[in-house]
Amino acid sequence: MARDYNFQEIEQKWHREWVQNRTYRVVEDTNRKKFYVLNMFPYPSGAGLHVGHPLGYIASDIYARFKRLQGFNVLNPMGYDAYGLPAEQYAIQTGQHPEVTTFANIDRYREQLDKIGFSFDWNREVRTCDPGYYKWTQWAFRKMFDSYFDTKQQKAQPISLLVRHLEQHGTEGLNASETESLNFTAQEWAAMTEQQKSETLMNYRLAYVSEMMVNWCPGLGTVLANDEVVDGVSERGGFPVEQKKMRQWCLRVSAYAQRLLDGLETIEWSESIKETQRNWIGRSEGTEVEFRIADSDQTFTIFTTRADTMFGVTFMVLAPESELVDLVTTDDRREEVDAYIKYVKGRTERERMIDHKVTGVFSGSYAINPFTGEKNPIWISEYVLAGYGTGAIMAVPAHDSRDYAFARHFNLPVIPLIEGADVSEESYDAKEGVVCNSPRPDVKPYIDFSLNGLTVKEAIAATKKYVEEHKLGRVKVNYRLRNAIFSRQRYWGEPFPVYHKNGIPTMVPEECLPVLLPEVENFKPSETGEPPLGNAQLWAWDEVNRKVVDKALIDEKTVFPMELNTMPGFAGSSAYYLRYMDPKNNDALVSPEADQYWQNVDLYVGGSEHATGHLIYSRFWNKFLFDLGISCKEEPFQKLVNQGMIQGRSNFVYRIQGTNTFVSLGLKDKYDVTPIHVDVNIVKNDVLDIEAFKAWRPEYADAQFELEDGKYVCGWAIEKMSKSMYNVVNPDRIVEQYGADTLRLYEMFLGPVEQSKPWDTNGIDGCHRFLKKFWQLFWDKDGRLQVDDSEASAENMKSLHKLIKKATADIETFSYNTTIPAFMVATGELAQQKCRSRRVLEPLVVLIAPFCPHIAEELWQALGHETGVCDARWPELDEAFLVESSVKMPVQFNGKVRFTLEFPTDASKEDIEKETLANEQSQKYLSGMQVVKVVVVPGRIINIVVKPNN
RNA sequence: GCCCAGAUGGUGGAAUCGGUAGACACGAGGGACUUAAAAUCCCUUGGCCAUAUCGGCUGUACGGGUUCGAGUCCCGUUCCGGGCACCA
Fold this sequence. Notes:
Elements: H1 7-21, E1 34-39, H2 54-69, E2 73-75, H3 85-94, H4 98-116, H5 131-145, E3 147-150, E4 155-158, H6 159-169, H7 186-191, H8 194-201, E5 207-217, E6 222-224, E7 229-230, E8 233-234, E9 242-251, H9 257-263, H10 271-281, E10 284-293, E11 299-304, E12 315-318, H11 324-328, H12 334-346, H13 349-354, E13 361-368, E14 375-380, E15 392-395, H14 401-410, H15 456-469, E16 473-478, E17 484-485, E18 498-501, E19 504-507, E20 540-542, E21 547-549, E22 559-561, H16 569-572, H17 576-579, H18 592-598, E23 601-606, H19 614-628, E24 637-642, E25 646-656, E26 661-663, E27 673-678, E28 683-684, E29 687-688, H20 690-696, E30 704-706, E31 715-719, H21 731-738, H22 740-749, E32 757-758, H23 764-776, H24 794-812, H25 816-832, H26 838-848, H27 853-862, E33 896-898, H28 909-918, H29 920-926, E34 929-937, E35 940-948
Parallel strand pairs: 1-2, 1-23, 12-14, 23-24, 25-32, 26-30
Antiparallel strand pairs: 3-4, 5-6, 5-9, 7-8, 9-17, 10-11, 10-13, 10-16, 12-15, 13-14, 18-19, 20-21, 20-22, 25-26, 25-27, 25-31, 28-29, 33-35, 34-35
The chain binds one RNA strand through helix 10, strand 11, strand 15, helix 14 and strand 32.
């Protein structure tokens, strides 16, 4: 009896063994080199895993197993991003506690993950909603509250240093990232009340409360960070988002803008993700120039990246929200300006984003251009944003398309400043060319300064220098990166370790952490922004007993109300990779020893959709912890691989309109048909299982089917994998039918890991067939192991070492989709060679172990090993076995032989040809063959085409 | 509009340093075994031409260029995907 590849039995057996033997437990071992592999941890949704989720996990698991076989001590942990909106939405609908549904989902995920055979060390699992975990989220927040950013040293410092500076010098000489520029003396600081001091420090803290315009989403009842808003609607749910002034907790992410930008140069991420982050950070180097308001002592500052265009300014524009608006509006213009401001306020962010109407109003005042002495009218328009730069611009219509549109609309002058630039139809925005009209030849120069004849680049530099020397302004770098709004008006998130003592936000002492999420009756947020924690009874801080108490006990002296907001989703996911290093430590986020050993993540695998969210926040968070000395590496994720999405492949049946008859794909064009999604699980190779279809949709039980060649062929389309399209493929089903090893192999075989691709069940048989063939390599037809200690032939060794070379190189670069064909070829060759040698077959088992750990374990054991295959050693490549392959003559190669041999470059073609044909090695391959054609190039000989002599 | 990445058979995709395309798999067609089916095995499979054996031409989105040689490098164009977007 032949021995079948019984994958179900094998896989279940090894899952048990791995648990019993704690095969994948990892401990720090300073004698071994570490390697840290990490997947972005999942949010456990109610729908469970579909076939797309494990893609990244499989890819990283292969890498982790590969590194382990190479002798590294590999950390490959897994956990759950358990706080979040869907669990809470579900709780509101069903009244179930989010913890209950979240835990149920986690169990379901775990069950599904376990079937696929990952090498995760579950002993290190983390859950963001676990108090032992979020203690450290609260702790980090507390540290941020107690820190400011020193712009000179470019690092976080204790706020106490800043307080000392204020006490001694006021704001004089202060180098700190700030919300707005403040100016006060040490005396003024000393005179402030406690509350004023608290307010003032909020201007500098890395975690701070501030009254600000926020993205308010009434549909979700919470504020959102910029990256959670897409096209004016919420990323989750697609509810409209409006701008609203609210008092919110924020993180001063912008302080780290430059370091976030610089750090990108030191990490191995895809260029597109780095570019996305660069865009998001949006560094722009420019100049701030002060303009005096005519007939006034007041000045205001504008920001420009085109300092070379100072002589082309024809008007100024203020953002409608600018505080200067009131100042510059003259009495005769007031009514019109007020009407305009009212109009702008009535427009939503979304409206402003979608249609760029040219609107604006003249304020009545003029500003004096310090380079020309001219009076430029000051306008107010919504196209200037309050939040960027200074909220005021100088308009140069000749060289800025927005200014141009405005000037044309309101009939303002346009002065071209670049030789040959035609601005009759549109502005000339390019930063190229030679400057002219600066100053204009027909105008008497106002100052002794000219840019004429310089290139744009030179002119910018010259103007910057002039501005600095004459104290007209300063060189300034602006960033688009905004501070992150850190509070949410939701229940299912980390509570803030904050109470409000007489209006002063105060931190719960470090040793009292964690502050536990209180129970509430009603999880529902309100449309007005009152958070659900307002419903919690046990939610006040007792300063004397240092604990959370019933809010009925609130008094003016010792018991105060707690903060009602909770933290956003990115809070818990920002430092989780550090926690995996030391997940059970109750005294520190991570011990210095563990951090020193594991350093940072060597390989991080996850989706690119987190480019401007999680991947920015966790870099920021880690840089902060680096400044504190908690994390020894400034960048958390050294190498990043973005796995693509697996799309669904939907199937359709075609119903003739108004009838109960379905026609096969090839016949549908003859009729007027309606395509109907059909469950892909009752379709095989695009052929519909008609009986299953009738059972699935009872309303079509009596339907007629028009077949082609006796089959009903379905149409197909590539769509997002989702329930409503009936195209969800559940990994459990694949595991059941083909086994986890086939699933793992097939997901990798489907195409490059980084690429999005549709799930196509049609191809899975090929991978399964390969595993069967691989299995058969080891057993004779009576089911006995047919591996012996015989010598391996040169051919055997060549097949093996070709594979070693390919697999080693490919796994290192994540090119799994090309490794698998190499396995197929090698297996085919060895089968043909009837290879029995342990010297070949044993390394072969090790080579396949990262991909298919179950079958590898089983064979490894059958080969008589006591310990598991994951403790084996990755086979060494011996190039000696490949030497002959430099002269390739594949069996089915149409008689073509390819050589690469070195010759002196001055050798003639004839000499090369003659010598090559006489060459010993060539002779071996050319004997018995007749040379048809030789293609020679100087230095090399490329092709020799031969055919058999007879 | 700006930035990034890409385009190869019926399909997914190989070709890793510029070396003479299409690995591997799917699908399709033909055949063997079988009462039949499943499973398994063998052959063919970019296109066109051919005496269908030998072989020839053509071919990696399109148009040019560099090179003895280009899917690969350079310039331009088209199309698809992703990001940013009144950011001065």
